[in-house]
Amino acid sequence: QVQLVESGGGSVQAGGSLRLSCAASGYRYSRNCLAWFRQAPGKEREGVAAIYTGSGSTYYADSVKGRFTISQDNAKNTVYLQMNSLKAEDTAMYYCAAGLLYGGSWSSVYEYKYWGQGTQVTVSS
Fold first, then answer.
1. Which parts of the chain sit beneath pLDDT 50?
2. 29: exposed, middle or buried (C-beta count within 10 Å: 0-12, 13-18, 19+)?
3. Hey, is 36 helix, strand or coil?
4. Nearest-CA neighbor of 48 among 113, 107, 112, 110?
5. What are the beta bridge partners of residue 27?
6. Do the bridges between strand 18-25 and strand 78-83 make them parallel or antiparallel, or are there none, so unpaired?
7. What is the pLDDT of residue 30?
8. pLDDT (tens digit, 9 = 90+) per residue, 97-108?
9. Bridge-partner residues for 50, per DSSP?
10. Are strands 58-60 and 46-52 parallel, antiparallel or unpaired?
11. Is the dihedral of CA 92, 96, 100, 101 positive or negative?
C-alpha cells in the first residue's frame, strides 16, 4: 500500500524558513514524480514544486521560484521542501503527492494518484 507521510509544518514569522519532509513507501520510488501542493482556505489546491525521482528534474511554481527548493534522499525514500523567505501568502495546508506522469503537467492535481494527509504552514506578518 502506498503511503505518503508529511512532517515539518508549523508557524513562523515572515522571512523565516521551514523544511517539509515527505516519507514515501509502498511503490517503486524511482518511477515516480513526487510533488508538493498547497491549499489555502477558500482556494484551489495548487502545485508548488515537483521532482522526478528518476532523473532528479525539478519544477517550481513562479510564486516560489528562488525561495523554495525541492530535493530528495533516495536512500530514505524521502522528498523535502526547503522554504525560505516565507511570506504570509505561503500560509496553507501543504500536501505531498505521488504519481506516474506520462507527459502530463506536474502542477495538475489530476496527475497524482496518491496523497498525504497534509501539514499546516502558517506564516505571520
1. none
2. middle
3. strand
4. 107
5. none
6. antiparallel
7. 61
8. 998 887 789 999
9. 35, 59
10. antiparallel
11. positive
